[in-house]
Amino acid sequence: MCLVPDVYPSDAAARIRQLEKDVAELKALLQARPGQTQASKGWLLTDMSIPIVEAGTVHIGSNGGNFFAATTAGTKRMFLQATYVAHTANMTAGASAPGTYSPSYCQAVREDVRAVRQTLADQMDAERASGQQASS
User: Fold this and answer.
1) Pairing state of beta strands 66-71 and 59-63?
2) Where are the alpha helices (DSSP H) in 1-136?
3) Residues of the chain with pLDDT > 90: what percent?
4) What is the Cα–Cα distance from 25 to 22, expressed in whole angstroms?
5) DSSP state letter for 54
6) How many CB atoms are closer than 10 A to CB 68?
7) What is the per-residue pLDDT for 20?
8) What contacts 49, CB < 8 A, 6 or more positions away?
9) What letter would DSSP give residue 39?
10) CA angle (37, 42, 45) in 5-degree steps
11) Residues 43-94: tens digit of each pLDDT
12) 37 has pLDDT over 60
């Protein structure tokens, strides 16, 4: 016959004393442990390598000074800023078209459109390089 030890004393008063002792020990452990964050002072995150996460979980951290969110679908870097792309604000064609067909005006409009297109392409390239936009 196997006898299982009585882990709970049959005396109710002894059980209560043991529970009170356990609660006091747990309170002491909680007071000794520093908080996970100090949100009122800002969060301090230590840079880390991006971990491999389990399905259904998200790991948020800092890598290379940038926030990231890692899932099984991949890693998304957050709050990155693309490089500023300088552009020229002056239009060469002017604000109003001439009264008759003008090859030089048409060429100026084409140049304006080309310049806007190039500025947009440069901005998109800068965003892709910073991780703000997916590469094609």
Assistant:
1) antiparallel
2) 12-32, 103-130
3) 7
4) 5
5) -
6) 20
7) 92
8) 63
9) G
10) 60
11) 778 888 988 899 999 988 888 888 888 889 888 877 666 677 777 667 777 7
12) no
User: For the residues of 45-100, what is the DSSP string, one character each?
Assistant: ----PPPP--TT--EEEEETTEEEEEETTEEEEES--PPP-------SS-SS--SS
The Cα–Cα gap between 66 and 50 comes to 11
- Residue 90, both tokens: 């002056």
Residue 119 tokens read as 């500025």
Strand order across the beta sheet in which 74-78 lies:
59-63, 66-71, 74-78
**Residue 36, pLDDT score:** 58
- Terminal-to-terminal C-alpha distance of the chain: 72
Read off the tokens for 38. 């100090």
CB proximity list for 54: less than 8 A, separation 6 or greater: 72
Give the pLDDT score at 134.
62
